[in-house]
Specification:
Length: 89
């Protein structure tokens, strides 16, 4: 499943927070970095399942896209921890 969110955090901050979250917050569904580059992170968890995250700076914040087969609940939970983009108005 693919999850998307827009956040006020920088791309680097999103990836740092993802590494910490999946290593510490949900021990039964832990996942650890396998590859990381500018704007993307691949985490590997139980049974070799993966979480792929991309964070791209855009006007007004960062677009975050995550895909996984096994970790849908954990990914959705992680995305709710990211700061929201402040609304202008």
């Amino acid at each position: 499943m693919v999850h998307e969110v827009h956040t006020s955090a920088s791309p680097e901050e999103v990836l740092d927070r993802a590494e910490a979250f999946f290593a510490e917050r949900i021990p039964s569904q832990a996942a650890f970095p396998e590859r990381r580059g500018p704007g993307h992170l691949l985490l590997r968890g139980q049974g070799g399942e993966e979480i792929a995250l991309a964070a791209t700076a855009q006007e007004g914040g960062t677009a975050v896209r995550a895909s996984t087969l096994l970790f849908d609940h954990a990914v959705a939970r992680f995305l709710t921890t990211l700061p929201v983009v402040a609304e202008v108005g």
